[in-house]
Amino acid sequence: xxxIVGYIGNKQAQPILLQxxxxxxxxxxxxxxxxxxxxQCISRVRAVGKIERLAKKLKDQEIPGSMGIAxxxxxxxxxxxxxxxxxxxxxxxxxMLAHNGxxxxxxxxxxxxxxxxxxxxxxxxxxxxxxxGTHYNGxxxxxxxxxxxxxxxxYGLVVMHVDHPDCIIGARMxxxxxxxxxxxxxxxxxxxxxxxxxxxxxxxxxDGEIVELTREGIQTxxxxxxxxxxxxxxxxxxxxxxxKQGFDHFMLKEIHDQPQVFEDAIRGRLDMExxxxxxxxxxxxxxxxxxxxxxxxxxxxxxxxxxxxxKYAFERLSGIPTEVDVASEFRYRDPIIDENxxxxxxxxxxxxxxxxxxxxxxxxxxxxVRGIVNVVGSTIARETDGGTYIHAGxxxxxxxxxxxTNMVAVLLLYALxxxxxxxxxxxxxxxxxxxxxxxxxxxxxxxxxxxxxxxIAEKYKDIPSCFFLGRGxxxxxxxxxxxxxxxxxxxxxxxxxxxxxxxxxxxxxSPTFPVFAVMTKNQLYEKMRSNVEEIxxxxxxxxxxxxxxxxxxxxxxxxxMYVPPTMELLEPLLNTISLQLLxxxxxxxxxxxxxxxxxxxxxxxxx
Length: 607
Ligand code: M6R
What we know:
The protein is α/β, with parallel strands linked by helices. It has 18 helices and 27 strands.
């Protein structure tokens, strides 16, 4: 959680840092601060609340200087106060540190620091600043290295000192850091978004690495002080992609991105002639692929729902038994894994701590571990032995939308690839490929119907509670629809398989308890219709997602969201979009902070 940005160059650092913080705000936004070197001293300004509060403060006390560090916080240790906001200082304000992650042994370190060191915050990060301070004897990099030898836990950190007007030190262990390489200016940040307006040339730090940024260049070291040569990489995302592009919110923009980014996900990966998909990143020989007798999909939140669609697809297309595990549970349940198990870790950010821990566990047990990740160069992408980027582009709204559909897309491609290498006929494979190719246009059809969804959202926006129902893959659609609604409207909702209602939840139904049901035309249509009849009989308001042309749905309700037909396994790619829009419009009507819902952060890098 939290976001770091640092700058060293010849420009005024304050606007660059502030702009960088705004771009990182999705990572955490309960307080923020910055520190700048100028006129032989370092000035620090911090504020509780969103970045704009800090910006307002800085308007009255603009600080000069062309080197500085900044931080936006999502609290882990200590409350949301200005004292707990970063940067933290040591050595009477001559040393400043901004830190992401958790120092597990901070209490132990605190004790060792002794009574001479007095703390002003409740954070583990301030303890780390003082630890570095105790090792400082004029050489900042070595002080950081020496201090980190005593640290257990995770960190992405940046440090500066008043005696070093030409130096920022960064270090990484479990919390990402990217260095931007400009013309006589250098940047360091938790991800590339603050860097993109200035340069696309970046260096990704790996765990256990330290970087020294000066105006002349950067140098990377191991914690043991050995010099490392790192490659400068070119980022493909352009700055414009990271902006709202005229939409009111990132979430709405990202919902509308889906037809385009879905095409990006399947581009060059489909083979119509053979009726299959080719995903090079799998890095497995034919023989290894044939050996796979179990697939485990590990992820959190929305990514785990993408995994559930993947389970249906793998089992139906390839016949390989497939499980989905919520990553936070996986690592503690002693899962049965061997060298014939293929584990996919699914993650938008590629930094989710639980997912990361789960893949480490799977690797220890000898499984093939592959990533299905959005953020290029992220930790999960680099810690897996291969895998596939979902190419959804930057997803900045906290509520995941386009990353979900592209995760599903990539899982479907993998299921097709495994299916064709096992029991699936070429004709079925070709039908599947064709259906995938039609998806972007069908997604667009749903987006073009947003006025109907907006009207339904307006009608139901004041409900206190509701159910989402579906069967088969549409049960997953219900789960994801329910999560989206909860996340951004704060309306209580639960999702159930249609057949489960009569086993308990139906007791809640009444004329004031709405049910959103996905009843598209597939092999479970008749079953779902019966479940919808049961709801109708309890006079609960019904809102249906149904397939174009299904006029009989009007017997139940006028509140209908129509979707174009597709193959059953592909339905989540379309049906989910209606529910994303529904949640979005309800949240807007309720005047919620759509892109930054309360208590949530985009990238959950703590366990
Ligand atoms: O970055 P990841 O895909 O690993 O994140 C997993 C979840 O934290 C994430 O999907 C979360 O559930 C979103 N807020 C859903 O909208």
